[in-house]
Design a protein that fits this description.
Elements lengths: L1 E2 L19 E2 L4 H22 L4 H6 L1 H11 L14 E4 L5 H11 L39 H14 L6 E6 L6 H12 L5 E7 L2 E2 L2 E2 H4 L5 H7 L3 E6 L3 H12 L6 E6 L22 H10 L2
Parallel strand pairs: 1-2, 3-4, 4-5, 5-9, 8-9
Antiparallel strand pairs: 6-7
Helix pairs in contact: 1-3, 1-4, 1-10, 3-4, 3-9, 5-6
């Protein structure tokens, strides 16, 4: 298993050997926190360059993806279709900039390619496209689809006697979709324990605060009523996220959902808890201000 330096997998530190080795990061918490800040800078820069995108929900999901890709998941950047890989499914596809930043730092494609976000002919479209982007497991963007897809992937693993795990990242606003709850019911019915759902619970969606648009309360009780094991965690604490994922791995006979309490726009003061930055790109002045905060 290849060990990647603490600073992560940019072009100079990602897997470069001829054989595609399993990606592993035995970094300190401080190393992963530095990577999270670096990912946030990528997100701001690429969305600012594109002039469009979704910064708020991308920034809130950074620690979740950092914990998975740089600490917990088995994957091979030089062999994205390796059968033994763990699968990460981004159901909230508008957070694609966060996923692209992570994939680039892991070595799936050059970091420099991030600056082509949303350009004609780019592999990095506004929502992920698994047919063109290395490392993307599902073409997403139409909300509510990821958990159903993840259930199918997890069932396939069981049928094929594979030991990979499936991780599905949903938005909390996305959980207004009825299909999420159909998938939740089916996942519990089939006692799927090789799937972990994660809800980026930042309290907002495109039209504003969830409590004003369509309240999800009692959110934890809903998942429990559908037969899921529920873990609540600070979604910006890497140690707590890692502990929660490891706890989920030990749960047998039922699926686990991690409700990760996050802040939309995390890391940039004028974006935090600001619904205006759900789908609005920062202008050049705002990019400069944001990067100063993330220095």
């Amino acid at each position: 298993m290849k060990s990647i330096p603490e600073t992560g997998g940019s072009k100079s530190t990602s897997a470069t050997n001829a054989e595609a080795e399993v990606f592993s990061l035995s970094a300190s918490v401080a190393g992963m926190e530095a990577m999270a800040k670096k990912l946030r800078r990528h997100i701001i820069t690429m969305i600012g360059q594109a002039g469009s995108g979704h910064p708020g929900g991308s920034l809130s999901a950074v620690e979740i993806m950092t914990a998975l890709y740089f600490k917990l998941m088995r994957h091979k950047p030089l062999d994205p279709q390796w059968p033994g890989r763990d699968r990460f499914i981004l159901s909230k596809g508008h957070a694609a900039p966060a996923l692209y930043a992570v994939l680039a730092e892991c070595g799936y494609f050059p970091v420099e390619e991030l600056m082509t976000l949303r350009q004609m002919g780019s592999r990095l479209q506004g929502h992920p496209d698994r047919t063109i982007t290395p490392g993307v497991e599902m073409s997403s963007g139409s909300l509510g689809q990821g958990l159903s897809f993840g259930l199918g992937v997890a069932l396939a693993g069981r049928l094929d006697e594979q030991d990979y795990r499936v991780y599905v990242l949903l938005g909390d606003g996305e959980c207004n979709e009825g299909q999420v709850w159909e998938a939740a019911m089916a996942t519990a019915h089939y006692n799927i324990d090789n799937l972990t759902a994660v809800v980026d619970n930042n309290g907002q969606q495109i039209d504003g605060w969830n409590c004003d648009v369509m309240s999800l309360d009692p959110f934890v009780a809903k998942w429990q009523a559908f037969g899921w094991n529920v873990i609540e965690v600070d979604g910006h604490s890497l140690p707590k996220l890692i502990a929660a994922f490891k706890e989920a791995q030990g749960v047998k006979g039922q699926p686990t959902v991690i409700v990760a309490h996050t802040i939309k726009g995390k890391g940039v003061s004028f974006m935090e808890n600001n619904p205006d930055f759900h789908g609005t790109a920062p202008n050049s002045i705002e990019v400069e201000l944001a990067l100063k905060e993330l220095a």
